Amino acid sequence: MKRIGILTSGGDAPGMNAAVRAVAGKAMAEGLEAYGINYGFAGLVAGDIHKIEAADLDGVIQRGGTLLYSARYPEFAHEEGQLKGIEQLKRFGIDALVVIGGDGSYHGALRLTEHGYNTIGLPGTIDNDIPYTDFTIGFDTAVNTNVQALDRIYDTAHSHDRTFVVEVMGRGAGDVALWSGVSIGATAIVVPEVDWSMEAIANKIKHNRANGHRSNLIVLAEGVMGAQEFVEKLSEYGDFDARGNTIAHMQRGGNPTAKDRVMASKMGAYAVELLLAGKGGLAVGIQNNQLVNHNILDLFESKHDVEVSLDKLNEEISFK
Ligand code: F6P
Question: Which domains, and CATH codes, for the chain?
Fold first, then answer.
């Protein structure tokens, strides 16, 4: 093996750059060359490919976003695009590929593997919704961004005796909401994985207010409903002077946390080790602080384990 290709795909996530740097850095340390593919699978098909020089990696571990750019490219589901992608890889003499992204990106990686092309997937998404890894690259940074925003919202909520419903990302998963909510002592965390009732939340707010608690913050996962819709439904149970806020794409930007940088670095170097051992078709993860790899196919047959006990914990310790 002489050349390793790297691409980032789907929604960007802070720490993707650290992963790209680790893959390229480890490849160079092993005497290999690293090639960057811009705009994910779209760039792969188009042949938007370039050699990565060591100096290109200066200062990237610090930065959010992805230096390789990203794209959602559902067209890669068609075999024609997959074969074209492999043709481009061969044209550049690239022997194996590391794909950094979420669920959709893993589908692309699996297709390449099925065509006999060695590919390793790294979990890069703020959503944390990938099976066989405790954490995905970008999740920790997104949660910390939310915590900063929620702390600020808390200040104004407290000054005005208000209730705020704050919608956070996560696609269909509640991880971002659960971690953000526990971190700020939310009155309630509403996620798709746990049954909840608007009436019970309204009663809790009434109880809190009657007991001198001036503000109430509800952290809502986007997979349940939008903040404004939630506020409207909540208002049917009483006047809480409620406001809806959406943190939205702010969660995807910013300098990655140390945890994301270190995790991405470990995973990136590990991906190269696997490829050097002649392995492909694998998804890298981290479980109980150990690097692990699983067949990419297994990921589609398993469900991501959401730490739903965080909701119970929050209910217990935020009881007012
Ligand atoms: O998968 C990452 C994510 O940020 C989700 O949390 C969110 O639902 C989605 O991407 C937003 O996608 P887009 O940036 O394409 O609007």
Answer: 3-138+256-300 (3.40.50.450), 142-253 (3.40.50.460)
